[in-house]
Amino acid sequence: MARGDGIDRTNARNMRMTAAKIGNTQQHNEREKDSYVNQDIVPERTSLNVHFKVPSAGYQEMFSQMEADGVISTRGIKADAFRYGELVFDVNSAYFYNHGGYDFAKQFYTDAYKSAIKIVGGEQYILSAVMHADERNRAMSEALGEDVYHYHLHVVYIPVVEKEIRWTKRCKDKSLVGKVKETVMQVSMSKKWASQPAVDEATGEPLRTAKGKPVLRKSYSVLQDDFFQQMRSAGYTDLERGERGSSEEHLTVTQFKVKCEQERLAQLQEAAVLAQAEVDRRNREAAAAEKEAAQAKAKLNDVAHMLKGMEKLAEEFSSDPEQVLPEAGPLESARAYREKKAKPLWAKIVKVLRSVYRAYCDLKSKFERLQADYGREVSKNSSLSERIYEVCAERDSLKGKVRDYERVRRAIGPEQADRILEAAYQQEQAEKERKRDARQKARLGAR
């Protein structure tokens, strides 16, 4: 795919599908739906779509018929296995626009279909192959002021590998045990797209790691290489291979800046998620503290009527018992009254009152601490909420900048936008170097 650098690149994707998913793929490829989520599909152009292989029935019905005819085998595979594959071949829209549009696209994908037959292993395993010509490239259409369409090829196939079935020990003829009984075309997505050993282009020898293990090429990379080479062989020499792996090899300065901004935006979004998680944790802690405080308050309410006036009563009777007891009556000596009756009784009462008073003070202190803790948690949550608001505002600002950049790029054209930003970047670098030289001269002069 093109990345704004003026280079046209091939692109091939392989998608795996189960029986449960293939119905939706059929409806999309064969344009069987009444409406589509993709708003760029133009129904009036659907008649321009080109079938290089028209399905003889529904995809599942064709699969079942091939299985019944013995063309393919599903022996041993699970019901939810990947039984279908879809190759999508693609080049950026500008490539077809610059080479004549629809007619050129038809010829290109005619050759691409031949490549698909080789990749799949035979046309008999292809269920459908259709070039879509009815999907509008919105960005390019708006930039050029005319309708531009994105041509691409869908090839739905059954992934098969050749498998030898051998005679087992149950065979009555022991001489046949271990020998090939029959060869079937086994449905297997994993074996069809197994990684392949990498080869040194100079020597032709297999590449190995430092530990002697073979270096493997991922199936996606093999697919990209095969499609690119076969299209080059078909005469399309003005194309380059699609991106290798997940790395970007041809980023311009402008694209690098946009990529950095997008990465920073992703980091801010991640920070917002983490901050929200911290707020949720703080809210849970605050709720727990509030619940505990409510329980303590409920306990205080339960004993409030018992403690009413208790502080005053305890203070009144907390002094020395000899100072609050009355004098003895005329029938009993004061000493005997105080020592045997009044003093022991009041000592017990005061002891009980002091115990109750201490319990009251402890409970009151605990309640006050809980209220203070709750207040601190509320304050922390308020601070976190403000930080989340700031992060979200910065994130929205970055999104707006990216959208503004895309609008300007579409309005003045990608090449002009790149030239302007490249000039600005060079000017910034020159200004930085000028200031750095000035600081160095100032330091040398100070010496």
Automatic annotation (TrEMBL):
Domain of life, source organism: Bacteria
Pfam entry (one): Mob_Pre
Key words, A-Z: Coiled coil
GO biological process terms on file: DNA recombination
Biased composition annotated in UniProt, kind: Basic and acidic residues: 429-440
Chain coiled-coil ranges: 258-306
Region (Disordered): 426-447
GO molecular function annotation: DNA binding
Family statement drawn from the similarity comment of this UniProt entry: Belongs to the plasmid mobilization pre family.
UniProt protein name: Recombinase
Source species: Mobiluncus porci
